[in-house]
């Protein structure tokens, strides 16, 4: 008997069969991973289970009994909860308010929060969530927000928990903690469906893994007896190189030079200085990686370099030209490309078509306009070219609304747009977040190709694995300062970890 | 039409029907005997003769433009609730030129009136735009203020410069300052009289097409909409958001200002009265914009529809309804249109659920058949 069985589920969207006759069986108390390329249909399948979409064909059974799920309300009363790929929290509500939202207890129309507060505190303690339940959502980190989402499910006594790419937005430390939480929950008899692109995580926590490819179920395997290579082959349909071969870097001239950058903290935030005396260079032909735990100034540094925020003091030179005060567009035109950290906030206009998003940085150039009029045909053809080159998958090709695309494919639009502009400096902030292994391999190869064609690449990454594999040189940031400048070949994971946590630091001179 | 197109259309129709029903109920309550004929008048009057049809177009002219004004700002992420003040200001300037600039030959004078009205509206729109761009003042607040400032300022200007003592309103324009009818009076007439419909409606349709082209075909429109959809992404792309806010409010104001010009130059001898009330056209524009789902072409139809209902509604007085009841009913019908987005989301869900029930019943049929899967 399965606690949940989805039988022969088919779900179509305009132009695409997102789920094609999929059968998925979830055992009680197991952690069941769901693996598949970007756009394979994982989120869609889970949304069907959670009642957000209605399947065209197939049925869902709980403990062998057919159930009809017409909305999240039904799912909830069946004990099914979901943490979405992009969180759904009310930003100016407190943690506690978000948790009880929708299942509040009232007495004569007045909210009764006392019992709720106790229950939430007890749950939070049980799972070791160190969380202040009276803070507003907008003031807590992404990792904490996710805990709120988890607490929401626990508060509703859900026993079937769906996690859609929960780790994509977490720091390695937070991932560690989440893995432990998931194991604890499974040990208590909760059943977990876990979407991730990271094979290590699957190996670490999952009991079984189902693999989807292009909307079809490829199979369900026992994780312990299946290697990572086998898993990725099932998923992509070919062998994937999980590690990267790269040649020696041929270092050229300095492209980006940063001198004594300072950024004061804002009074309404923590008030701490965001950037302290940052100086470094990026040279043609190298991939310089900035490592660090999230929130140690990487975001502020990128904002300062790209012009999204003005700096308090310091200088930034692009090929010797001072751009410290230049406008965003001028910086872009000086040869900077930017793959932003938050694709929904900065990277995309979700209500524009795929094609319109590919020209976001170039729509005003003569290639795409004449006399102020957009060249529609050229734009569509250009988008088609990028779709082919970067394997961007969607329901309706270049005309697809970006909002309806899968997370990974949205990311590919940004990558395609920024890389194809042939920049001199590529600033890539977590470019592989949310991508499948095949796509990650592809992106890494693209970054290397950029480097090998004499471009400078500045990679900001939270993932040590990526940092170590891809970079030619590593700077570590801690509390707004650069605390290490190391060679990936001569540093160990442990050492890097020490730098990142602030336990160790070098005197770093500008190079 | 694709699925969402059908949904849009249906929700616009539905919202009008619901508004009409509520209006009907109010008529029933106030005088059940006359409710039915009065209601029938709302539905049929506008189409009962070519002359009435012409009047529908005549009154549609200004509200299509104020609707377009609201929609244009809306598409770029701004809520121009100041169309009323821009309309009044534009109207005043148009009348002023029509009355005072008699040394200009009529065609040039008319053109000057329209252009000056557009500029005046743009100026009035620029104020909230500038305040938003450089001082982060919410445009709704500053628009409300510019509405009142515009109204009182225009009252002041009329009293001091354009006052007709006898009528207590602005001086009447000479008839050659009005928009030419371009032969429309030969089409839109009944046996007795012709409608005053004039080239204003043609100018309006041309402007709608122009706005459509700006929004959908140009890089400028691309920028404006990008700001409207996602300000942060627009900033990332190096789009100058402040400049766009100002331009957008100016264009929006110019459209409302033009509405003022076309309204007061329509040849019916309208003049501005000294009243302490905001011009209604600006607010009707909100309904027209929403009912037309903020799409330029949709707004032509919604403007005509609202004008149609308004004109029919005004006739209800003939059935003994007091002017207050008439205005309540008309307002309910027209302002209810602004709920179209609410109705759209209801309708969307309803269709979804309907599909589900369908499936469910199918499934039950299968299970009744007794075939275990
Ligand atoms: N609401 C929607 N409307 C139209 N198409 C959609 C919608 N949601 C998903 N799709 C399409 O269905 C396919 C599957 O999308 P889904 O989000 O399930 O992928 P995924 O496996 O979760 O991918 P990722 O790993 O990138 O998140 C994609 O091609 C996507 O474009
Ligand atoms: Mg997904």
Q: Considering residues with a beta carbon less than 8 A from a beta carbon on another chain, report the largest interface and each chain's count.
A: A-B, 34 and 26 residues
How many domains of chain A, as an integer? Answer: 3
Q: How much helical structure, as a percent, in the residues of chain B?
A: over 70%
Basic shape of chain B = globular
The main pleated sheet of chain B reads as: 2 strands, antiparallel
Structural class of chain A: alpha/beta
By CATH, the topology of the largest domain in chain A is Rossmann fold
Largest sheet of chain A: 6 strands, mixed
Radius of gyration of chain A: 24 Å
Strand content of chain B: under 5%
What is the strand content of chain A?
25-35%
The count of strands of chain B amounts to: 2
Order of helices and strands of chain B: HHHHHHEEHHHHHHHHH
Q: Report the mean per-residue pLDDT of chain A as an integer.
A: 90
What's the gyration radius of chain B in Å?
A: 23 Å
Helix content of chain A: 25-40%
How does the overall form of chain A come out from the CA principal axes? globular
**Uncertain residue ranges of chain B:** 356-373
Question: Could you give me the name of the CATH homologous superfamily of the largest domain in chain A?
Answer: P-loop containing nucleotide triphosphate hydrolases
Explain this structure.
The complex is a heterodimer of chains A (about 500) and B (about 375). Chain A has three domains: about 5-235, P-loop containing nucleotide triphosphate hydrolases (Rossmann fold, 3-Layer(aba) Sandwich); about 245-335 and about 425-510, P-loop containing nucleotide triphosphate hydrolases (Rossmann fold, 3-Layer(aba) Sandwich), CATH 3.40.50; about 345-420, no CATH class. Helix content of chain A is about 30%, strand content about 25%. Chain B has about 375 residues and is mainly α. Chain B has a domain at about 55-310: ABC transporter involved in vitamin B12 uptake, BtuC. Chain B has 15 helices and two strands. The chains are: A alpha/beta (about 500), B mainly alpha (about 375). The interface between A and B is medium-sized, with 34 and 26 residues. The structure holds adenosine-5'-triphosphate and magnesium ion. The site of magnesium ion has 6 residues of chain A, from α1.
């Amino acid at each position: 008997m399965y606690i949940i069985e989805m039988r022969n589920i088919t779900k179509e969207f305009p132009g695409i069969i997102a789920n094609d006759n999929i059968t998925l069986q979830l055992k009680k108390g197991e952690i069941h991973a769901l693996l598949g390329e970007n756009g394979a249909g994982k989120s869609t399948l889970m949304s069907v289970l959670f009642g957000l979409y209605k399947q065209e064909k197939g049925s869902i059974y709980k403990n062998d009994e057919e159930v009809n799920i017409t909305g999240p309300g039904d799912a909830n009363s069946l004990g099914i909860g979901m943490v979405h790929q992009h969180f759904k929290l009310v930003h100016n509500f407190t943690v506690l308010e978000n948790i009880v939202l929708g299942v509040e207890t009232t007495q004569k129309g007045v909210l009764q929060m006392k019992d709720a507060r106790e229950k939430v505190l007890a749950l939070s303690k049980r799972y070791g969530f160190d969380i202040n339940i009276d803070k507003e959502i907008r003031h807590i980190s992404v990792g904490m927000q996710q805990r709120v989402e988890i607490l929401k499910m626990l508060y509703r006594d859900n026993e079937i928990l769906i996690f859609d790419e929960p780790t994509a937005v977490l720091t390695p430390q937070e991932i560690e903690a989440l893995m432990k939480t998931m194991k604890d929950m499974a040990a208590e008899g909760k059943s977990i469906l876990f979407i991730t692109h990271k094979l290590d995580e699957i190996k670490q926590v999952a009991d079984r893994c189902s693999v989807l490819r292009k909307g079809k179920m490829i199979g369900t395997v026992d994780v312990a007896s299946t290697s990572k290579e086998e898993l990725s082959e099932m998923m992509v349909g070919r062998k994937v190189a999980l590690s990267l071969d790269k040649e020696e870097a041929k270092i050229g001239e300095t492209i980006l030079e940063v001198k004594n950058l300072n950024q004061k903290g804002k009074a309404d935030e923590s008030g701490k200085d965001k950037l302290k005396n940052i100086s470094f260079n990026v040279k043609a032909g190298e991939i310089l990686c900035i490592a660090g735990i999230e929130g140690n100034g990487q975001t502020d540094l990128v904002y300062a370099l790209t012009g999204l925020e003005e700096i308090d003091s310091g200088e930034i030179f692009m090929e010797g030209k001072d751009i410290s005060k230049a406008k965003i567009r001028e910086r872009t035109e000086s040869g900077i490309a930017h793959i932003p950290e938050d694709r929904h906030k900065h990277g995309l206009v979700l209500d524009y078509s795929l094609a319109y998003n590919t020209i976001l940085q170039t729509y005003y150039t003569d290639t795409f306009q004449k006399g102020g009029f957009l060249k529609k045909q050229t734009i569509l053809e250009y988008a088609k070219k990028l779709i082919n080159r970067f394997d961007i998958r969607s329901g309706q090709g270049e005309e697809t609304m970006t909002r309806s695309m899968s997370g990974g494919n949205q990311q590919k639009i940004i990558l395609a747009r920024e890389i194809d502009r042939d920049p001199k400096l590529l600033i890539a902030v977590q470019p592989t977040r949310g991508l499948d292994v095949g796509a990650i391999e592809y992106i890494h190869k693209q970054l290397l190709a950029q480097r090998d064609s004499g471009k400078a690449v500045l990679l900001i990454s939270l993932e040590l694995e990526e940092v170590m594999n891809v970079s030619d040189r590593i700077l570590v940031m801690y509390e707004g300062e650069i605390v290490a400048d190391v060679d990936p070949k001569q540093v160990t994971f442990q050492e890097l970890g020490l730098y990142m946590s602030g336990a160790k630091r070098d005197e770093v001179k500008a190079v | 039409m694709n699925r969402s197109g059908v949904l849009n259309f249906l929700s616009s129709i539905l919202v009008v029907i619901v508004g009409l029903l509520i209006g009907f109920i109010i008529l029933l309550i106030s005088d059940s005997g006359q409710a039915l004929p009065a209601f029938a008048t709302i539905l049929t009057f506008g189409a009962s003769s070519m002359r009435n049809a012409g009047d529908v177009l005549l009154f549609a002219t200004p509200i299509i433009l104020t609707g377009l004004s609201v929609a244009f700002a809306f598409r770029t992420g701004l809520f121009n609730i100041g169309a009323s003040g821009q309309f009044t200001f534009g109207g005043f300037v148009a009348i002023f030129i029509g009355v005072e600039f008699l040394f200009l030959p009529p065609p040039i004078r008319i053109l000057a009136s329209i252009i000056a009205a557009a500029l005046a509206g743009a100026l009035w729109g620029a104020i909230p735009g500038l305040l938003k761009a450089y001082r982060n003042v919410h445009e709704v607040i500053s628009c409300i203020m510019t509405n009142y400032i515009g109204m009182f300022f225009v009252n002041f200007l009329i009293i001091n410069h354009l006052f007709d003592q006898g009528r207590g309103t602005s001086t009447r324009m000479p008839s050659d300052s009005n928009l030419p009818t371009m032969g429309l009076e030969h089409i839109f007439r009944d046996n007795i009289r012709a409608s005053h419909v004039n080239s204003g409606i043609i100018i309006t349709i041309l402007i709608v097409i122009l706005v459509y082209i700006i929004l959908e075909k140009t890089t400028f429109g691309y920028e404006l909409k990008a700001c409207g959809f996602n300000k942060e992404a627009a900033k990332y792309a190096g789009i100058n958001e402040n400049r766009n806010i100002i331009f957008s409010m100016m264009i929006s104001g110019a459209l409302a200002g033009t509405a003022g010009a076309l309204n007061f130059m329509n040849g019916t001898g309208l003049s501005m009265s000294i009243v302490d009330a905001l011009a209604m056209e600006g607010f009707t524009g909100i309904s027209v914009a929403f009912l037309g789902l903020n799409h330029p072409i949709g707004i032509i139809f919604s403007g005509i529809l609202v004008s149609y209902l308004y004109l029919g509604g005004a006739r209800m007085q003939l059935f003994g309804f007091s002017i207050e009841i008439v205005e309540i009913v008309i307002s309910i019908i027209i302002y209810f249109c602004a709920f179209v987005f609410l109705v759209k989301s209801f309708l969307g869900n309803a269709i979804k659920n309907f599909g589900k029930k369908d499936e469910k019943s199918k499934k039950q049929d299968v299970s009744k058949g007794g075939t275990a899967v």
